[in-house]
Specification:
- The protein is 45% helix and 22% strand.
- It has 307 residues and is an alpha/beta fold.
- The protein has a six-stranded mixed sheet, with helices on both faces. Strands 1-2 form a two-stranded antiparallel ribbon. The protein has a two-stranded parallel ribbon with strand order 7-8.
Length: 307
């Protein structure tokens, strides 16, 4: 019989087009994802993907299965939520750890929604960076958080909920005529945010790995802590930067009007996930706040998906 975990791995492979990308989205090993899909194919008695180079192409059977798998996962989540709604009373204080730029996505909107729905709940949203928030979760200072992957700790449970593309940002439109390669990144004058967390920041690490593959090191001409400062410097034409699509949309009118964007080649995303300690039951208040946050992020997905 097929399992919900198999459905989850299968749908991730359909969305991303490869086992490697699906594993990255789910925070699992590539071999684990491919094995779950293989077991699902055995249960269905039919191939679900055709291997094309390093990618996957869903078969007709996969197209037929996908909507049923999505409904099964949704029904499972709804069933659990319904049971908890009867059992739980949401009150007290909840501390939710977050990644540093969450305020540009759902910050104020999330807090307002929590206060309206749960007037007896006191909420604290804390965290300067994903790495710092993960440490808060490990230490027990917060029950759970929403952070950028990867999370390299087997003691933490990880549930991916949202991903956002990282874009190259420049005031010089001649640099935005096509996707920006690692070789172009290596030669670019860059101003990058999150200076205090440079070694732990997931975006910087991904960029550094790409540039290093060309034989040089990533060396920004300026490092700043705040993303708005980086965008302001880029808007003056003094250096280029990178930023998430959803973050730029969240900033709206605060983004310098001269700036434009281009994707990277290959394209690059940040994946955000709910994280908490394994073998630890979350409080009713924390569960309620997390589900509201997840719903807010999933509501953003159509808006930040590239056309």
């Amino acid at each position: 019989m097929a399992s919900l975990h198999q459905f989850r791995c299968f749908l991730a492979a359909v969305r991303t087009g490869s086992f490697t990308a699906a594993a990255a989205e789910l925070g699992l090993a590539q071999q684990s994802v491919s094995e779950q899909v293989r077991l699902l194919e055995r249960a269905c008695g039919v191939a679900l993907f055709i291997r094309v180079g390093r990618g996957l192409r869903p078969t007709e059977a996969a197209g037929a299965l996908a909507p049923h798998a999505e409904r099964a996962l949704a029904a499972s989540e709804q069933a659990v939520a319904a049971a908890r709604a009867v059992r739980d009373i949401v009150a007290g204080t909840v501390r939710l750890g977050v990644f540093g730029t969450m305020r540009y996505y759902v910050g104020a909107d999330l807090v307002a929604s929590i206060l309206k729905r749960y007037p007896d709940l006191r909420v604290q949203i804390v965290g300067q960076n994903s790495a710092a928030t993960i440490e808060l979760i490990r230490s027990g200072d917060v029950e759970a958080g929403i952070v950028a992957l990867p999370v390299d700790d087997a003691q933490l449970a990880v549930r991916p909920v949202f991903r956002d593309e990282i874009l190259y940002v420049s005031a010089d439109r001649s640099r935005l005529t096509g996707p920006v390669t690692a070789e172009q990144l290596a030669k670019a004058r860059l101003v990058l945010p999150y200076a205090s967390w440079a070694e732990a920041d997931t975006t910087r690490r991904a960029l550094a790995a790409r540039v290093q593959a060309t034989g040089v090191a990533l060396r920004p001409v300026a490092d700043v802590d705040d993303v708005e400062t980086a965008l302001d410097v880029a808007g003056r034409g003094l250096a280029d930067t990178v930023a998430n699509r959803g973050l730029l949309q969240g900033l709206a009118g605060r983004v310098p009007h001269k700036l434009g964007t281009a994707p990277l080649r290959p394209r690059l995303w940040d994946t955000f996930a709910v994280v908490h300690r394994r073998q630890t039951e979350l409080s009713p208040a924390t569960r309620a706040v997390l589900e509201m946050a997840v719903a807010k992020f999933r509501g953003l997905a159509p808006r930040v998906t590239a056309k």
